[in-house]
Design a protein that fits this description.
mainly alpha
C-alpha cells in the first residue's frame, strides 16, 4: 500500500471513529442524566454487579480472537476468512457454554457478587453473551480494514435504543430491568446490522490447526483481559461485599460517567492507533513517531479536561446526575484528574504491546499493578468508602510507572521523550487549574461557573500557543481539517 493511500486511510478512519465516539459519548451521558434522575443509586449498584459478571464471561467468549484478527498479517482473503470462521464458531460455542453455567449456578453467583436473591436477573442479563459473539468478529474485520463508517451506523442505532426502550421502561417503574432489557436489545441490533452488512458471512468451516495458531497468540490476550478485568472491577467487588449497594451505585456511576467523557477522546483514537501501529510494527522509527503524535494530540484535550472536571466537580455532578447524587462530586473530581494522567502516560502503552504481538507484556504490567492494587483496596475499605475512593484513584499512578519502565527497556521509548512530548500541555493544564481555582472563589453562582469555564479554556489555549512546537502542530491540524471540509 502506498504511503499516501495508507495515510489517507488513517485520516478517514480517524474521522469516522471520532464521529462515532463523539455522537455516542455526547448522547450516552444524556441518557444517563435522564436515568439518574429516574432511578435511585441502588438500581445502578445492581447493574454494576451484573455488568461485572457479564464482562468477565465476555472475555472468555471472545478469547482474544478479535485482537488477533486485527493484528495478524494474512496471505489473502481466503486465509483471513478461514481464521474468521474458526474465531466465530469458537466464540459462539464458548458463549453458549458460559451462559448455561451461569444459568445453573445463578443463585450462587448472585451471592458471590453481593446480590443475593437476584440469580434470575443475572441469568437473563447474560443472554447478551451469545449475541455479542455474532458482532465481535465482524467488528474486528471492520477495524482491520479501517472501515469505521459502518461501525458509526451501528453505534448510532445502538444509542437511540435507550430513548425508545430504556427510558420509557424506567418511567413505567421497571427499575433495573429497564437497563437490562435495553442492553439486550442493543446487542441484538448490533448482531443483526453487522451480520447483514459484513462481506464475511459465517460458514460451516473449522480447523483445529488454525485454532491452535490463534489460541497460542490469543491466550495471552485472554490472560491480559482477565488482569484488566480484575483491575477494573476489584474495587466494585470489594464495595459490593464490604459496603452497600448505595455506595457501589454512587461509585460506579460516577467513575463510569467520567470514563464516558474521557472516552469521547480515547475511544476515538485507540482503535485507529492499534490498527495503525499494527501495520507499522516492523518500522521502528515510524512506529515511535506515530505513537508520539497520537499521545501529543490526545494530551491537548485530555489533560485540561481532567483538571477542569476536578475543578468543577460540583457543577459536573449537578448537570450530569442531579441533586440526588451530591456525594458523587468528590468521586468524579479525583477520578477525572487521575484518569487524565493515566490516559496520557499509560493507556496507550498496551496498544504498543499488542501491535508488536506481545500482549504478555500488558499482562505483566497488569499483574505488577494488581499486587499493589488489591491489598490497597482491601485495607482502605476498612477505613470507609472515602478512603477507598482516594486510594483507588491515586494508586493508578503506580501502573503508569510500570508502563513507562516497560516502554523504555523493551521498546526503547525514552521516558524523558514521552514526558517532554507532552510537557507544554502539562504546563498549560496546571496553570489553567491554578487560574481557575482563584477566579472560582469570586462567586458560587451558576452563571459565574460557566464564565469561569470559558475563561479557563481561553487561558489554557493562550498558554499552549506560547510554545512554538504546539503553535505549529495546532496550526497544521487546523489547516488539514479546513482543507478536508472545504
Amino acid at each position: 500500500m502506498k504511503v499516501n493511500d495508507f495515510q489517507s486511510k488513517i485520516l478517514n478512519a480517524t474521522k469516522w471513529s471520532a464521529l462515532t465516539e463523539i455522537v455516542a459519548k455526547l448522547i450516552t451521558p444524556i441518557t444517563n442524566m435522564i436515568l439518574a434522575r429516574i432511578l435511585v443509586p441502588e438500581a445502578f449498584g445492581v447493574i454494576a454487579t451484573v455488568t461485572m459478571l457479564v464482562s468477565f464471561a465476555e472475555m472468555f467468549a471472545d478469547s482474544g480472537f478479535q485482537k488477533y484478527l486485527v493484528q495478524h498479517e494474512f496471505k489473502d482473503n481466503k486465509e483471513k476468512y478461514q481464521y474468521t470462521n474458526v474465531a466465530f464458531w469458537t466464540n459462539l460455542i464458548i458463549s453458549i457454554i458460559l451462559w448455561v453455567i451461569i444459568f445453573i449456578f445463578r443463585e450462587e453467583l448472585a451471592i458471590l457478587v453481593g446480590n443475593p436473591g437476584l440469580g434470575n436477573v443475572l441469568a437473563i442479563a447474560c443472554l447478551q453473551l451469545p449475541l455479542t459473539s455474532f458482532s465481535s468478529i465482524q467488528m474486528a474485520l471492520y477495524k482491520r480494514d479501517f472501515n469505521f463508517k459502518t461501525l458509526f451506523l451501528v453505534r448510532v442505532v445502538a444509542i437511540t435504543i435507550p430513548f425508545i426502550i430504556t427510558i420509557p421502561l424506567a418511567l413505567l417503574g421497571c427499575d433495573y430491568w429497564s437497563l437490562i432489557i435495553g442492553t439486550l436489545i442493543i446487542q441484538f441490533s448490533n448482531a443483526i446490522i453487522l451480520t447483514i452488512r459484513s462481506k464475511w458471512k459465517p460458514k460451516l468451516f473449522y480447523s483445529a490447526k488454525i485454532f491452535k495458531r490463534m489460541f497460542s497468540f490469543s491466550i495471552w490476550s485472554l490472560i491480559e483481559a482477565i488482569s484488566i478485568w480484575l483491575t477494573s472491577w476489584v474495587d466494585s467487588f470489594i464495595i459490593a461485599n464490604n459496603l452497600s449497594q448505595h455506595e457501589l451505585g454512587v461509585y460506579k456511576t460516577s467513575t463510569s460517567m467520567v470514563n464516558s467523557l474521557m472516552a469521547i477522546i480515547t475511544a476515538t483514537v485507540i482503535p485507529v492507533l492499534f490498527s495503525t501501529l499494527s501495520r507499522l510494527q516492523d518500522d521502528h522509527n515510524k512506529f515511535q513517531s506515530t505513537y508520539y503524535i497520537f499521545q501529543r494530540y490526545v494530551s491537548i484535550l485530555v489533560l485540561p479536561l481532567g483538571v477542569g472536571i476536578c475543578l468543577f466537580s460540583d457543577l459536573a455532578t449537578n448537570l450530569l446526575l442531579g441533586s440526588k447524587w451530591k456525594e458523587a462530586s468528590t468521586v468524579i473530581g479525583v477520578w477525572a484528574l487521575t484518569s487524565s494522567i493515566q490516559i496520557v502516560f499509560g493507556h496507550f502503552c498496551s496498544e504498543v504491546y499488542r501491535a508488536k504481538g506481545q500482549p504478555k507484556l500488558s499482562f505483566l504490567a497488569q499483574v505488577l499493578h494488581l499486587v499493589v492494587l488489591i491489598p490497597a483496596c482491601i485495607i482502605s475499605s476498612k477505613f470507609g468508602f472515602w478512603a477507598l475512593v482516594y486510594t483507588r484513584s491515586w494508586i493508578r499512578m503506580q501502573s503508569v510507572l510500570v508502563h513507562l519502565f516497560i516502554m523504555k527497556y523493551k521498546f526503547f521509548f525514552p521516558i524523558m521523550k514521552i514526558l517532554s512530548n507532552v510537557l507544554p500541555t502539562i504546563i498549560s493544564a496546571v496553570l489553567m487549574g491554578i487560574f481557575g481555582y482563584f477566579i472560582q472563589q469570586i462567586s458560587n453562582a451558576f452563571i459565574w461557573d460557566l464564565i469561569t469555564i470559558l475563561l479557563c479554556v481561553l487561558f489554557y489555549f493562550a498558554v499552549l500557543l506560547i510554545f512554538p512546537d504546539m503553535r505549529k502542530e495546532i496550526s497544521k491540524l487546523i489547516r488539514k481539517r479546513l482543507a478536508e471540509w472545504f
